[in-house]
């Protein structure tokens, strides 16, 4: 199984990352896409990719909500494009990027416009570098999909999509992929979403350390089997089929993972 969206550079994993990776491997995880949210995580993600080669694959980008729950500002992007371009050969995807229009984060009149401008810039960079986009869309599913399609983005993973199946339909038609975290197994609305998205466009994720099976416990990549079990139940197929197809989907979506074919 491949965890297509997690945050192993988060401070919650600093003290026991070796054990976290060992548990993930024991659970059948063969790779993780480790996403940045903030600029100060870039270096740590590259350290993880060197410490756990062919297991931790870097996704570098700027989350729409920065530290202290502040909506991203244009100056937050200073030197980000240059860093990504200089290190593009080691980057599996641009992420975590996107939009987040949750009302409590939109405190300034131009916050949404700035998020859109930043997201557009990161979409265009991903297309220039031929990299997949690992996308956040909380409370902004429709505008995220509209902007991706407007920009002509082709390789897109919509992580933990918060919209309903109707909102997801244009993304399904565009050939975008959807990754499913363990927390979706607790939501009736997500049953409808997973039933609507073809298995050929589904991937697994944990979004560790959040979106796990319990809101009070730290999530880890080892919990990815919960996502696979949930998809199997909704789709009425075997767990083995879900693992096989979602792994193939991930390798197709993130070309850097092709090196894993030797060990599948």
Explain the overall architecture.
The protein has 264 residues and is of the alpha/beta class. The chain has a single domain, classed as Alpha-Beta Barrel (TIM Barrel). It contains nine helices and ten strands. It has helices at 17-26, 42-51, 80-86, 111-129, 141-151, 165-173, 188-196, 224-235, 239-253, and strands at residues 2-6, 31-35, 56-59, 65-66, 70-71, 93-98, 132-136, 156-159, 177-180, 202-204. The protein has a five-stranded parallel beta sheet. It has a three-stranded parallel beta sheet with strand order 1-2-3. Helix 7 links the parallel strand 9 (177-180) and strand 10. Helix 6 packs parallel to helix 7. The longest helix is centred in the middle third of the chain and has 19 residues, at 111-129. The radius of gyration is 17 Å and the shape is globular.
Here the CATH topology equals TIM Barrel
Looking across the biggest beta sheet, what order are the strands in?
Answer: 6-7-8-9-10
Low-pLDDT stretches: none
The total count of strands amounts to 10
Radius of gyration: 17 Å
Quick description:
The chain is α/β, with parallel strands linked by helices and 264 residues long. The protein is built from nine helices and ten strands. It is 39% helix and 15% strand.
